């Protein structure tokens, strides 16, 4: 194939790859479980007009399937962190927990003493489970942590999340189709006067690349829908055990705060 045809196909593939990556990021931000990556867009006010990435201000780790632990490097950043997170994810429930470091270390040491070296290796137990953060400025043995909890996927939230997935996937498919059609027009100009077999080879390459990324979009959609269904199932099982249903969580304004703008 001509070099300009190859370049045009590669350019299309890069654009489709970028669009797919953006879709995956947006879908991840439709949170139905604890996803540290969902906080990547959080910007925390720094000194002056500077905004800092969240990893510059705190450590983020998974507490359980539905909760994240935010460990600020400084107590003074706690309120700024809470506001910045709320701006990106108003659906997250926030609560502050204070941990006694001495007591936590004591419990960790007791647990370590109850296990054999082989068990410790298998469990990959750390020497100290305490987050590497600056200690509470009011007391050396106290540590303040911010706990973020993803709201349960009840009936209302399930519908909103599913509708949001549909909207994001539709927008992604439209953008991909536009880029594929544009590439086809550009490539057709380069192929004027070329042999039939070369034209067929180029068109086949375009269709092959387009199908690859369109299939990936479908796979991403199915994966997210499955996550939503599983979260909804957990909600039903939990409340069936408790003998009742609480549908207060969710709400249209809190289910989806991400757009498909590039």
Notes on the structure:
The protein is an alpha+beta fold. It has two domains: 3-29 and 154-255, Orthogonal Bundle (Topoisomerase I, Chain A, domain 4), CATH 1.10.132; 36-149, Gyrase A, domain 2 (2-Layer Sandwich), CATH 3.30.1360.40. It is 55% helix and 13% strand. It has helices spanning 3-28, 78-88, 101-113, 117-123, 155-190, 196-242, 252-255, and strands at residues 43-45, 51-53, 58-64, 67-72, 93-100, 142-149. The chain has a four-stranded antiparallel β-sheet. A hairpin with a 5-residue loop joins strand 1 (43-45) and strand 2 (51-53). The longest helix has 47 residues, at 196-242. The chain is elongated. Residues 122-138 and 245-260 have low confidence and may be disordered.
Question: Quick recap of the structure?
Answer:
The protein is α+β, with helices and mostly antiparallel strands and 262 residues long. The chain is 55% helix and 13% strand.
Keyphrases for this structure?
262 residues, four-stranded antiparallel beta sheet, 55% helix, 6 strands, elongated, 2 domains, two-stranded antiparallel ribbon, Topoisomerase I, Chain A, domain 4, alpha+beta, 7 helices, Gyrase A, domain 2, single chain
Assembly context of the chains = single chain
Structural class: alpha+beta
Number of domains: 2
Q: CA-to-CA gap between the ends? A: 32 Å
The strand order across the widest sheet is 3-4-6-5
Task: Determine the strand fraction and express it as a percent band.
Answer: 5-15%
State mean pLDDT (0 to 100 scale).
83
CATH architecture descriptor name of the largest domain: Orthogonal Bundle
CATH class of the largest domain: Mainly Alpha
């Amino acid at each position: 194939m001509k070099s300009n045809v190859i370049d045009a196909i590669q350019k299309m593939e890069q654009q489709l790859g970028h669009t797919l990556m953006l879709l995956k990021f947006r879908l991840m931000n439709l949170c139905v479980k604890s996803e540290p990556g969902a906080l990547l867009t959080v910007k925390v006010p720094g000194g002056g007009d500077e905004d800092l990435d969240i990893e510059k201000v705190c450590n983020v780790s998974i507490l359980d399937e539905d909760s994240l632990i935010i460990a600020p490097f400084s107590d003074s950043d706690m309120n700024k962190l809470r506001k910045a997170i709320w701006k990106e994810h108003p659906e997250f429930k926030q609560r502050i927990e204070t941990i006694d470091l001495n007591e936590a270390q004591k419990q960790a040491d007791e647990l370590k003493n109850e296990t054999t070296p082989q068990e410790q290796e298998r469990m990959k137990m750390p020497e100290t489970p305490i987050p590497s953060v600056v200690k509470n400025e009011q007391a050396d043995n106290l540590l303040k942590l911010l706990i973020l909890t993803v709201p349960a996927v009840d009936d209302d939230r399930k519908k909103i999340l599913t509708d949001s997935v549909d909207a994001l996937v539709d927008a992604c498919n439209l953008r991909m189709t536009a880029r594929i059609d544009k590439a086809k027009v550009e490539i057709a100009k380069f192929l004027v006067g070329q042999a039939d077999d070369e034209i067929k080879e180029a068109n086949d390459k375009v269709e092959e690349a387009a199908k690859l990324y369109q299939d990936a979009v479908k796979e991403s959609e199915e994966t997210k829908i499955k996550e939503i269904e599983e979260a909804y199932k957990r909600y039903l099982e939990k409340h069936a055990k408790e003998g009742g249903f609480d549908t207060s969580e969710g709400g249209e304004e809190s289910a989806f705060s991400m757009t498909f703008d590039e």
